Amino acid sequence: MAIIVDKSTRLVVQNLTGREGSFHALRNRAYGTQVVAGAAPGHGGEDVEGIPVFNTVSEAVRETGANTAATFVPARFAADALYEAIDAGLETIVCITEGIPVHEMLRLYQYARDRGVTLIGPNCPGVISPGKANVGIIPAEIFAQGSVGLVSRSGTLTYQIGYELAQLGLGNTTVIGIGGDAVVGSSFIDILSRFEADPETEIVVMVGEIGGDEEERAAQFVAEEMTKPVFAYIAGFTAPPGKTMGHAGAIISGSAGTAQAKKEALEARGIEVGTTPTEVAQLVAKSV
Amino acid sequence: MAIIVDKSTRLVVQNLTGREGSFHALRNRAYGTQVVAGAAPGHGGEDVEGIPVFNTVSEAVRETGANTAATFVPARFAADALYEAIDAGLETIVCITEGIPVHEMLRLYQYARDRGVTLIGPNCPGVISPGKANVGIIPAEIFAQGSVGLVSRSGTLTYQIGYELAQLGLGNTTVIGIGGDAVVGSSFIDILSRFEADPETEIVVMVGEIGGDEEERAAQFVAEEMTKPVFAYIAGFTAPPGKTMGHAGAIISGSAGTAQAKKEALEARGIEVGTTPTEVAQLVAKSV
Amino acid sequence: MVSRLLLGMDLYEYQGKELFRRHGLPTGAGKLAQTPAEARAAAEELGAAVVVKAQVHVGGRGKAGGVKVAASPEEAEARAAAILGMEIKGHVVRRLWIESAAEIEREYYLSVTLDRGAKKPLFMFTTEGGVEIEQVAATNPEALVKLHVDPLEGFHPWHGRALTFGAGIADANERRQIERLASQLYEVFTSCDATLCEINPLVVTKAGELLALDAKVTVDDNALFRHEDIAAMRDPEAAPLEERAAREKGVTYVKLDGEIGVLGNGAGLVMSTLDLVALAGGRPANFCDLGGGGAAQGVVDALEVISADPQVKAIVFNIFGGITRCDEVARGILQALEAIAIAQPIVVRFDGTNAEEGRRLLSEAKLTNVYPEPTMLEAAKRAVELAG
Amino acid sequence: MVSRLLLGMDLYEYQGKELFRRHGLPTGAGKLAQTPAEARAAAEELGAAVVVKAQVHVGGRGKAGGVKVAASPEEAEARAAAILGMEIKGHVVRRLWIESAAEIEREYYLSVTLDRGAKKPLFMFTTEGGVEIEQVAATNPEALVKLHVDPLEGFHPWHGRALTFGAGIADANERRQIERLASQLYEVFTSCDATLCEINPLVVTKAGELLALDAKVTVDDNALFRHEDIAAMRDPEAAPLEERAAREKGVTYVKLDGEIGVLGNGAGLVMSTLDLVALAGGRPANFCDLGGGGAAQGVVDALEVISADPQVKAIVFNIFGGITRCDEVARGILQALEAIAIAQPIVVRFDGTNAEEGRRLLSEAKLTNVYPEPTMLEAAKRAVELAG
Question: CB D67: neighbour CB atoms within 10 A?
Answer without folding.
Answer: 18
